[in-house]
Design brief:
- The chain has one domain.
- It contains one helix and no strands.
- 94% of the residues lie in helices and 0% in strands.
């Protein structure tokens, strides 16, 4: 089904963006810790 494919792509995109945000947030936390 086409809607299912779109939904799956949306979920994958959300997971990727969340992972990127988490990595950036963790990186910023490490920088703040070391200061």
């Amino acid at each position: 089904d086409r809607t299912l494919v779109m939904f799956r792509e949306l979920v994958n995109w959300n997971v990727a963006s969340i992972n990127r945000y988490m990595k950036k947030g963790f990186h910023d936390m490490v920088i703040l810790r070391s200061v």
